[in-house]
Target: Histidine kinase
Amino acid sequence: MAGLRSVLGGRSVAGQVFLLVVVIVLLLVVAAVVALVLQVRHDTTQEARNRSLAVAETFANAPGTVEALQSPDPTAVLQPRAEAARERSKVDFIVVMNTDGIRYTHPKTDRIGKQFVGTVAPALAGESFTEEVDGTIGPLVQAVVPVKDPDGRVVGLVSAGITTKNVGGTADRQLPLVLAAAAAALALATAGAALVSRRLLHQTHGLGPHEMTRMYEHHDAVLHAVREGVLIVDDGGTLLLANDEAHRLLDLPADAEGRHILSLGLDPGTADLLASGRVATDEVHRVGDRLLAVNQRTTDRAGVPPGSVATLRDSTELRALSGRAETARERLNMLYDAGVGIGTSLDVTRTAEELTELAVPRFADFVTVDLFDAVLGGGQPNAAAALSRTAVSGIRKDAPLYPAGERIRFVESSPQGRSLATGGPVLEPRLSRAPGWQAQDLERSAQIIAYGIHSLITVPLRAGSLVLGVVSFWRCEKPEPFDADELALAEELVARAAVSIDNARRYTREHSMAVTLQRSLLPRSLPEQGALEIAYRYLPAQAGVGGDWFDVLPLSGARVALVVGDVVGHGLHAAATMGRLRTAVHNFSALDLPPEELIALLDELVGRIDQDETEEEGSAPVTGATCLYAVYDPVSRRCTVARAGHPPPALIHPDGSVEFADVPAGPPLGLGGLPFETAELELAEGSRLVLYTDGLVEDRERDIDVGLEMLREALGRAGQSPEDTCRVVLDSQLTARSSDDIALIVARTRALAADRVAEWPVPADPAAVGEVRAAVSRQLAEWGLEELTFSTELILSELVTNALRYGGGPIHVRVLRDRNLICEVFDSSSTSPHLRYATMTDEGGRGLFLVAQLAERWGTRYLPAGKVIWAEQPLP
Model:
């Protein structure tokens, strides 16, 4: 009750606020009621005007009104009509009068024939109008409307009126309800204001405005006069208040109040403490060049908003001790960062750059790394050779130091020269007083001194007994020279970097050796042949060399073999195994073996390699080697394909459609036990055969089915040429460097025209040899190859004679004109002739010797139903 009396008394802040709220609400309610009443009156009058005018105009323009006015007795005709219209329209009267204002109609008949009360001049002028009058039936609104004949002359007037009481009755009935709602709103607002004032009374302890002002002025003076920083932070981390000392100690911005603690630019440790609200007692934090002891307590007592209050005290007496501890901590952090930040890649140059980036500006203003050229290539350093500036980093870009890439020979008197010669570090605290350093380059040395660089530490990069180069630390901004403690820190930094640089050097050497081996084992150029137009790409893996390979091998009879293989893994072992398999394919293809037999021999070879490479020798088996071997014949346009665990070839038809050939998938090489099958494809001229390794369609983030579909889409967009096909495929398949090698071959087929092929059957009669010679002579004459007639007749004579004597029928001869002239003799025997050297007394045995002398190449190719003996001669 005392509190309520204080509120109602108006002396306290709470009472004044309560009275002010009640007065404002009362004024708002009264204003709302007055506005409603005025609005209702305005709407009533307007409604009366609209209704009376509408009724008058309707009656004036009704059919028969003009004729009734011109009749002998207008009242007899118009009175019934007017009364009926008045009842229907709910107006109080409808009066029809002549142009003199004499009434013809009126609800009260005793007023008919009397003068109309109101204004008629505007209506006589032809204008309709309304007016408000006080009539005998009360305040009303009446409208006067002219009645015009067809010629536009005013022949009479019609007036309709309605009292405002009849129009506004509804609004008047609602007024009590509005007043009741206003009273209820006033009561609720008064109750709410009382509750708010009661809370305010509790907060202000019943003080009046003057007492409150005086109290806050005293509190503010005390708060900002104390020599301790005070901060009040709410539970969300927003700074509510900071006194002058807190602004000074923390260097807070002028608009700090109202902002979050973490956005004020404080050091992370202090900001986290103030934002967390946790209890702290004399917790020391370094802020700029000050050490602050921070005490923090929460304010979550009953009735107090949650948050925290922190006090800050400047502990200058601990500054010196803290400085040394902080320096030690920074050096430990730098050494830790060097351990994790230097050597992230196996690249010599990048490792040197990481050392310079770490040391600038934390330790030195400029850092340079100079390495021997041999180290950059992975070799052993040569102390007599020049060095190359590998990395440069600094606080600015305009320092007059040697730029990166510069070749330098340090004189013996320079700090770098002494470090390289002795293998120890050198400290030059004052460069301006070091003549031996200036002897390196007098002009550049003067520029460096003028630039402001005044102190230098040089440390050799040592890896065991090897000196890889030298690191130079230059100081410019800090006026103090380098000291002995900093020299020790520089030695430790360089020692850690030297290990990483040496590892990168060794990796570079091994990688170069592997790349050299791999490049020596891959084909450097494609052999000449006329059956296929070929384009290829080989992309090494992102890390190390792999075992992917490919080859194009010309075979007898104008045929060409395509081979693609993959040895899983990377490094020298994979490259060496790839070379062995590629050599084996070369040897087996020279035997003109069918694809499935060649793959089977490769499978046996890999099995033997796995047996030889035991675990004791530190070698891994070749498990995972795959291969695809295809032979294309331009005469028949057939391609025979076999594969061992390799992705299927893609085929682009001349119309641009793409399909993956259905080639039986054999097991990977080295597993053994299962036969290999072939698929025979008939290719239209201009078709493109696409062979590839799995690195193109598969990686760790993409399944092979997705890769094959992407390859299909890319091949569908590619142009006609093999080169364009290779480009489109690699552009669409590769988003970054692949983690596996990629080998890609695109071969567009050509067909050997029928006019370049001649074929004759040979009867089982020795006399047929002469006929063959005559036929081939005529054919060579047609081809314009008369120069080869003698040698070709002799070759075919020997081969056909051997087939008749030692082979079996049927026998036929085929001559092909390709890049060479090819002679082939087919027979059904499986026996193979071999070259012998006849003695002086032998009568025969010199036929194949003559063939070998006349032909560039010759050999035997086995067929399912016999063999072919062939010989090739170069075209003139």
Observations:
- Residues 126 and 309 are 86 Å apart (CA to CA).
- The chain has a mean pLDDT of 81.
- The longest strand covers residues 138-148.
